[in-house]
């Protein structure tokens, strides 16, 4: 958005800062874009990027954001455990195609997957979200995430 001026003025230093943060993820697909933009940027853009990064890292650096994401993930999974009374069903957007259900846009809960099935699917998908972080454990026991490797 900052690079192309999408819904905001074009801001190369801000785009560099966001791409820098994104390119630091393991197996990042943003590293090439960051390197390319960095090569095209002015010394003033790079200087402003460094200033922005020092501020943005306090909230968005992986070692900070992953801990926050892990806590939110754990809170969500704890909430799912609380509602799992003897095989309860749970409708969650993205888990099922509601257009195939008899209730249409308002599904009949009996047509939705069991809470445990939803939890297993979320836990399986979390491997991709927390990829590259030491400490994230799928299943019933989880610990806070921490950065396993720095760029």
Measured by DSSP, the beta-strand proportion falls in under 5%
The SSE string, one letter per element, is HHHHHEE
Tally the beta strands: 2
Q: How helical, in percent, are the residues?
A: 40-55%
Radius of gyration, CA atoms, in whole angstroms: 20 Å
DSSP helical segment count: 5
Global morphology: elongated
Sheet bearing the most strands, described? 2 strands, antiparallel
Distance between the termini: 24 Å
Mean pLDDT: 78
Name the strands of the widest sheet in spatial order. 1-2
Class by SSE composition:
mainly alpha
Report low-confidence residues grouped into runs of 5 or more: 134-151
Describe this structure in words.
- Helix 1 runs antiparallel to helix 2 and helix 3 (43-60) packs parallel to helix 4 (62-83).
- This protein is mainly α and 151 residues long.
- The longest helix has 22 residues, at 62-83.
- It contains five helices and two strands; from the N terminus they run αααααββ.
- A two-stranded antiparallel sheet has the order 1-2.
- It starts with 11 loop residues before the first helix and ends with a strand.
- Mean pLDDT is 78; it is low at 134-151.
- The chain is 51% helix and 3% strand.
- The chain is elongated, with a radius of gyration of 20 Å.
